[in-house]
Amino acid sequence: MAKSVKDHILETLEDLEEKDLKKFKNKLCDREGEPKVPRGRVQKADAIDLVNLLVSYFTERGAAEVAIEVLRAINLNQEADELKNGTGKPTAFQAPSEKKMEEECRKTRFFFASTEVHFVDRHRSALIQRVTMVAPILDALLTKKYVSQEEYSLILEERTPASRMRALLTGPMVTCGKRGKDELCRILEQEQPILMEDLMGQ
Fold first, then answer.
1. Cα 15 to the chain's mean position, in Å?
2. Other CB atoms within 10 Å distance of the CB of residue 14
3. How many Å is the maximal CA-CA distance in the chain?
4. CA angle (187 as vertex; 201, 130 as ends), nearest 5
5. What is the separation of C-alpha 170 from the centre of its chain, rounded to a whole number of angstroms?
6. CA-based angle 51:42:99, to the nearest 5?
7. Are 197 and 130 in contact (CB under 8 A)?
8. How much is the pLDDT for 104?
9. Which of 6, 21, 112, 123 has the fewest Cβ atoms within 10 angstroms?
């Protein structure tokens, strides 16, 4: 049976020495470009979890390209060449277009296909009650144009974190739909990793 791209990436990572795998993780977290993989999840991941993270953030073909890029960045050129040969010649990874993201939104790890409910909707009450630092989340959403300047200012006028999160979830996140909710989840993974890990496990 032919090996998949994931198989080749996993084989490469499992063959790395512990110090090289640590370098790989650090460089992956520090790489420029979107999307960003949360450092907390990367540092705790073993080789299998790391491959799954790469695929979930970059797609299978994009994961191979990113892995090759990171291997070269830490001077593991032989390993990068072997992975490239094993997976074919992947094209440079590009973030998916908005249309593609909309088409793929039901396939994200934040969407529960069995119940047709998004992670944000499923854990709405917990997010309102437990997210404590809303301003950095709004900053990121404003930068990515998921909230307008007016919405940003109005939400910050709310006095408590809970009321700010409630305003965010009942306003801009409704307008943005699943794509905006996916982005909110990615931001929360960076800003509130412990909370997200807890909720993802429920």
1. 25
2. 13
3. 59
4. 55
5. 23
6. 65
7. no
8. 47
9. 112
Q: Which amino acid is at 74?
A: I
Averages of pLDDT over each 10 residues, the chain, 202 residues: 84 93 92 78 89 83 87 92 78 46 48 65 92 92 90 92 93 86 90 87 74
One-letter identity of residue 69: E
Residue type, 48: I
Domain ranges of the chain: 5-87, 119-201
Question: 119-201, what's its fold?
Answer: Death Domain, Fas (1.10.533)
The CATH code of domain 5-87 reads 1.10.533.10
Q: Is this structure's pTM higher than 0.85?
A: no
Q: Which amino acid is at 105?
A: C
What does the pLDDT read at residue 70? Answer: 92
Distance between CA 136 and CA 144 in Å, rounded? 13
8-state DSSP, 117: E
Q: Which residues contact 95 (CB under 8 A, 6 or more apart)?
A: 33, 34, 35
